[in-house]
Design brief:
- With 431 residues, the chain is an alpha/beta fold.
- The chain folds into two domains: 5-47 and 374-430, Urease, subunit C, domain 1, CATH 2.30.40; 49-362, Metal-dependent hydrolases (TIM Barrel).
- It contains 15 helices and 16 strands.
- Strand 14 and strand 15 form a beta hairpin.
- Helix 3 (88-104) packs parallel to helix 4, helix 5 (157-173) packs parallel to helix 6 and helix 12 (312-328) crosses helix 14.
- One of its GO terms (molecular function) is zinc ion binding.
- Residues 45-422 form the Amidohydrolase-related domain.
Length: 431
């Protein structure tokens, strides 16, 4: 929308969207200028990015141990690191840095897995509220002694449920939480929880109406484990435990079947597609195009630290690349006609939608679009930023300009970020 005008209300929501050349645009621009409220920006303005899968305590692990199998990576690196969040000061230092870094990269909304520590999880919620990042924050629940180390698991179902309630109560009681942060029920994944725990969390989800997040059919091992233990798919198991609802976001879903997709679409849940971490640990490419065609709600996730980048720009790029690899196949020894899955590719504009409006829709939050009633969560991309990676040559169409930004911009090109109409990291500076 070249030359467009957005009117931002006192509540931080978009009141009007005016196209250049319209009478409404001229009138509103004149009135705003006379009142000293007209802000002119060059470069590109895009909606804030929504990351649907972040393991917050794994931020210090970013880039480490990625040559290991998932089970080794978890036991050797992840669980010992997450256990350190019993230290509230350590949690505070990591989480404040994480939230600031994600905001600087344009992630204005995030769905967080925390650790199993109540106080540390509350620190994450506090960090989001103080920095004005929209977030859903969940204390991880894991009680299965067969899959969780002795030093890092819930001692009982009662402990897991009580801790989840305690975090939700803290979030609700925070005096500055005017809708910035919500709680989310977070069984780590089916193997990490006993049947009794899953049943109790499903009951809690029905009682409080909270969002639910977990991993689903991420890898060959996870799929086979669920089939062996429950006698049916992860999706069916989650549904039977009451954990598959309109408020559910499932990370990965690489091995969900067509019938799983149908069930998910009926329940209204969503998938957090994590293309970068899938390349490391998931053994497969998520059938994104098939899920979208079946009406499944999908957004994108970085899945740090399984994904070695916290950039949602990177997630968009990998979404396109992974879909093309699924379409074309990757084994050169197979005939071209047998190598891939035709019709699986998506383009960058689809990936951009998933990283913005798709993520907002998955969370039922009014974010990710420039439309009346939406929160003004946005970022400015400066193509000419001195340390940036964009290069323009003067002949780009509007479509080419956006595509170039999405494919080539770096964090240095993101010069301003707003949530609810106020610039982040700069105090209460209005847009």
């Amino acid at each position: 929308m070249a030359g467009g005008l957005l009117e931002i209300g006192a509540d931080g929501r978009i009141a009007a969207v005016c196209h250049a050349g319209s009478e409404e645009h001229r009138t509103l621009a004149r009135e705003a200028a006379q009142a000293g409220r007209l802000v002119t920006l060059d470069g590109l303005l895009i909606p804030g990015l929504v990351d649907l899968h972040v393991h917050a305590p794994q931020y210090p692990q970013l880039g480490k141990g990625l040559d290991q199998p998932l089970e080794v990576w978890l036991q050797r690196y992840t669980f010992p690191l997450e256990a350190r969040y019993a230290d509230r000061l350590f949690a505070r230092s990591v989480y404040r840095r994480l939230v600031a870094d994600l905001l600087a990269g344009g992630t204005t909304t995030a769905l967080y897995f925390a650790s199993r520590h109540v106080e540390a999880t509350c620190e994450l919620a506090d960090a989001c509220i103080e920095a004005r990042q929209r977030a859903l924050v969940g204390r991880v629940v894991m009680d299965n002694p067969d899959q969780c180390p002795d030093f890092y698991r819930d001692a009982s179902v009662a402990e897991g449920v009580a801790a989840t309630r305690a975090v939700a109560a803290h979030i609700a009681a925070h005096p500055a939480n005017t809708g910035w942060v919500r709680p989310v029920i977070t069984p780590r994944f089916l193997p990490s929880c006993t049947d009794d725990m899953l049943r109790a969390l499903g009951h809690l989800a029905g009682e409080c109406g909270c969002h639910v997040q977990t991993h689903c059919a991420e890898s060959d091992w996870a799929r086979d484990y669920g089939q062996d233990r429950f006698g049916h798919s992860d999706m069916e198991a989650l549904d039977r435990f009451g954990l598959l609802t309109r408020n559910t976001v499932l990370a990965h879903g690489n091995f969900i079947t067509g019938s799983d997709m149908d069930l998910l679409a009926r329940r209204g849940g969503a998938v957090a597609h994590c293309p970068l971490s899938n390349a490391w640990f998931a053994n497969a490419v998520f059938p994104l195009r098939a899920a979208l065609d079946k009406g499944v709600r999908v957004g994108l996730g970085t899945d740090i630290a399984g994904g070695p980048s916290a950039s949602m720009m990177g997630a968009m790029r990998m979404t396109v690349a992974a879909s093309r690899m699924l379409r074309d196949g990757v084994d050169p020894d197979r005939p071209a006609a047998e190598r891939g899955r035709p019709g699986s590719a998506v383009d960058m504009m689809t990936a951009f939608h998933l990283a913005t409006a798709g993520g907002g829709d998955a969370l039922d939050l009014p974010v990710g679009r420039f439309a009346p009633g939406q929160h003004f969560d946005a970022l400015r991309i400066d193509p000419d930023a001195s340390l940036g990676t964009m290069r323009l040559w003067g002949d780009e169409s509007d479509e080419d300009l956006l595509a170039t930004a999405l494919y080539t911009a770096s964090r240095a090109n993101i010069t301003h970020v707003w949530t609810d109409g106020q610039q982040t990291g700069q105090g209460a500076r209005p847009a």
